[in-house]
Amino acid sequence: MPDLETALQMLPFWADLTEEQKQQARTGSRLNHYDRGAMVHTCDGECLGLILVTSGKLRACMTSEDGREIALYRLFEGDACVLAASCVIRAITFEVQLTADTDTELLVLNAPTFLRLSQNNLHVECCMYKLATERFSDVMWSMQQLLFTSFDKRLAQYLWDESAQAKEVIKATHEQIARDTGAVRETVTRMLRNFAEDGRVKLGRGSVTIEDAAKLKKLALM
């Protein structure tokens, strides 16, 4: 886990802060550790401010009224996100739920400090809206996939991405895959069995191994 000063230097606007503003950021920041599966932010939780992943991976999702999760995007090392700062960006009218996909370390720049910096530094304000726009684009892409892409193609894309383009074994249960793809578990199980019968994947206990990368890629990217 990096120290606070090293983590702060990962902020995209750090070099554009005055010395006084850098000191404000130091005072208004903290480093948090989250174990795999831990909830980082809920839809009715506190306004966190800006978060930056210093190591690990986060999953952002929304939850439907019947409790189903829809995965929206992921945040990896070096990624920053402002969608947990709705109290700072008034244009944000919905909240996302953030969960640690692996053991994760975060830099959290609290909301009051983030708001003060964005009001007094044009570089911070521009960065804030740029990050918000990027995440909204991710959300819209996920919604488009969910609404207009057949499930076999969507599942193939998920497996292709999660396996690092067929280089790694996917460690996930059918329930987890269903949650990430916005489907029900029975549908995932049925489609994975079809993929296995077709030679695309090999199913294990809590794992999926890509057997025929070319065949899976063709379905995922067609």
In short:
The protein has 222 residues and is of the alpha+beta class. The chain has eight helices and eleven strands.
Strand order of the largest sheet: 1-8-3-6
Domains counted in the coordinates: how many? 2
Averaging pLDDT over every residue, what do you get?
Answer: 88
Tell me the Rg in angstroms. 19 Å
* Strands, count: 11
Largest sheet, if any? 4 strands, antiparallel
Strand content: 15-25%
- What top-tier CATH class of the largest domain fits best? Mainly Beta
* Number of separate helices: 8
Overall form = elongated
Secondary-structure content class: alpha+beta
Give the SSE string.
HHEEEEEEEEHHHEHHEEH
Q: Gap between N and C termini, in Å? A: 41 Å
CATH topology of the largest domain: Jelly Rolls
Mind telling me the CATH superfamily name of the largest domain?
Jelly Rolls
Q: Which stretches of 5+ consecutive residues score pLDDT under 50?
A: none
Give the oligomeric state.
single chain
The CATH architecture of the largest domain is Sandwich
Helix content: 40-55%
List the helices and strands and how they pair.
Blueprint: H1 4-8, H2 19-27, E1 29-34, E2 39-41, E3 49-55, E4 57-63, E5 69-76, E6 80-81, E7 97-100, E8 104-110, H3 111-120, H4 122-148, H5 151-162, E9 170-171, H6 174-181, H7 185-197, E10 201-204, E11 207-210, H8 213-221
Antiparallel strand pairs: 1-8, 2-7, 3-6, 3-8, 4-5, 4-7, 9-11, 10-11
Helix pairs in contact: 3-4, 5-8, 6-7
Can you characterise this structure?
This protein has two domains: 4-147, Jelly Rolls; 149-221, Arc Repressor Mutant, subunit A (Orthogonal Bundle), CATH 1.10.10.10. The longest helix is centred in the middle third of the chain and has 27 residues, at 122-148. A hairpin with a 2-residue loop joins β10 (201-204) and β11 (207-210). The chain is built from eight helices and eleven strands. α3 (111-120) packs across α4 (122-148), α5 (151-162) packs across α8 and α6 crosses α7. Helices cover 42% and strands 24% of the residues. It has helices at residues 4-8, 19-27, 111-120, 122-148, 151-162, 174-181, 185-197, 213-221, and strands at 29-34, 39-41, 49-55, 57-63, 69-76, 80-81, 97-100, 104-110, 170-171, 201-204, 207-210.
